[in-house]
Structure formats: structure tokens, C-alpha cells
Amino acid sequence: MEPFLLHPDRNGERIDRFLSRSADGLTRAAAQRLLEDGRVLLNGRPLKKNYRVSAGEEIFVSLPVPAPAGAAPQDIPLDVIYEDEDVIAVNKPRGMVVHPAPGHLDGTLVNALLYHCKDSLSGVGGTLRPGIVHRIDKETSGLILAAKNDRAHLSLAAQLKDHSLARVYEAVVRGNLREDTGVIDAPIGRHPVHRKKMAVTPSHSRPAVTHYEVITRYEGCTHVRCRLETGRTHQIRVHMAYIGHPILGDVVYGDKRPVPGLSGQCLHARELQFLHPRTGRPIHLSCPLPEDFEKVLTKLS
């Protein structure tokens, strides 16, 4: 695996902490193992775990090639909204990771789908992402669609690409939006400093478009509906923060303080609309708001 380059943005931070903050999906324990294995270099020399970085340094990190592995089936309850021989749509709870990744090797939606669907999941996404056509964040709840065979997967992926697979979210954002409807057209890429975050940036980014409309206005907050035209990582969260209205409970892009009674961010994938990959008929699915989301709305009323 090719090494990658990191630039510290502050002085005096321990190297293991800096690595875990800067490299997406890398835990502090994993960073310490990289240091022990001599995979973190400054001026060609391996760094020790107690090294403290300085702003402007160029630190090279070489990750080991991961051993091939597949996700294992796990008997985890699923809230199935729709299912047939080609597709399955699930109302994912907030806090569940979609597929295995460093730090989240089990307990994911994929583990649950493998148990529920047995051998009926597409292989297009590989052994760690069987059936997964699109993703939603760990702390975002709501509808996610999976394919049960390769034909269905390729059809749904094509619909994602040409924007005919519609994804509609509901959110509570901070502040009062000036307009009742709007379009946020701003490219999103990896944050230039905080590598675990995304940002609106002209550098190394991809086009991103979010349509929004106001559902209800409250004092200090607004209940909105958002439709994705593109599907970038953290897109709605980044876009709403970009226009000055971060999502309530989003401690990454908004207020760092958790909202009492809310176990995460107030963002829910409410609706999905697509053409069935076998019959071609339109399918429209929806799922209810989580209980704590509803309680927030009640409290704001």
C-alpha cells in the first residue's frame, strides 16, 4: 500500500493522537501499532509513540495491507420496510454502522442483512459490503436500500448515478432559514486539515447539490425536508452547516454540546423512491421519524 502524507496543524500534540484524528477510520490503538511497527516516518526515520508533532512537518504513514475477510451473519433485529426477491429496504436505527470497517467489525447492518437474507445478497460491493447500494451515517437513522442479486444492484446503482433514485430526509436545523425553499450547490471534499471531516472546498472535491424546503418554523430551529441530488459523504450535514444552519445534535459540524434527550443528530432518511429493477414499476417507501426526533418537535412546538 502506498504511504500517505500528513501535515500537523498544531504544535505539541502526541503523534498517536494526531494520527487518529487525521486518518479516517484509524483508532488511537491502531496508530500506536503503526508506530511500534516503524510505519510512521519523519525525514525517513521512524517516530516513537511519545513524539510530539510540530506544525508544518511532513509525516509519512504506511498502512499494512489488510488481510482479506468477509462479514459474518449476526442475528440482529431489523425493521424491514419492504422486501421482495430483488431488494430489501430497512429502517436503520441511529447508532448502527452500515458495513464493517476498522473499529466496527461486527454489529453492523451488513451483519444483520447476511443473517436475515442468508445467501441472497449481491456480490457487487465485495465481501464487506454485500448488497449495499448506498449508505447513511452511523448517527443518521432511516431508510437504506440493499440489493439481493447483482442484476438488482447494477440497476439501482445506475439509478443513483442518473439521480432517478430519490432520497428524501427530514432534519431539524439550528436557526431560522431565510427562504422557504432553496438549493445548496457547493462541492464537497475531504477537510484540508481535519481528515475525518468533510467540507465545502474547491480542492479535491466533487459536485454536491442539496434541495431543501421548510416544513415548520420554530423559535431558534427549523424543521426541514432535504432531497439529495448527489450523494456525497455527510452531504446534508456539511451543506446545512455551510449555510449557517447546522443540524441539531450534530457535534461534528455544529454545536459541540449534545442535545438533552437526543441520542445523536436530528437527521432521518424519511423516503426512498426508485424503479423496481425487475418490473420497472415505481416504488415509493417511507418510514416514521424516530421517537426522540418526534419528542424534539413536540418540545419545540
Detailed description of the structure:
With 301 residues, the protein is of the alpha+beta class. The protein folds into three domains: 4-61, Structural Genomics Hypothetical 15.5 Kd Protein In mrcA-pckA Intergenic Region, Chain A (Roll); 71-162, Pseudouridine synthase; 163-286, Pseudouridine synthase (2-Layer Sandwich), CATH 3.30.2350. It is built from six helices and 16 strands. The protein has helices spanning 15-22, 28-36, 109-117, 150-161, 235-242, 291-300; strands at residues 4-6, 40-42, 45-46, 59-61, 80-83, 87-92, 141-147, 166-174, 181-185, 188-190, 198-200, 205-206, 209-218, 221-228, 267-275, 282-286. Strands 5, 6, 7, 8, 9, 13, 14, 15 and 16 form a nine-stranded mixed sheet that branches. Helix 1 crosses helix 2 (28-36). The chain starts with a strand and ends with a helix.
Count of helical stretches? 6
CATH class of the largest domain: Alpha Beta
Mean pLDDT reading: 90
In whole angstroms, how far apart are the ends?
53 Å
Main sheet specs: 9 strands, mixed
Shape: globular
What is the name of the CATH architecture of the largest domain?
A: 2-Layer Sandwich
Order of helices and strands: EHHEEEEEHEHEEEEEEEHEEH
Radius of gyration: 21 Å
Outline:
By secondary structure, the protein is an alpha+beta fold.
Descriptive key words:
alpha+beta, 9-stranded mixed sheet, 301 residues, 19% helix, Structural Genomics Hypothetical 15.5 Kd Protein In mrcA-pckA Intergenic Region, Chain A, Pseudouridine synthase, 4-stranded antiparallel sheet, 6 helices, single chain
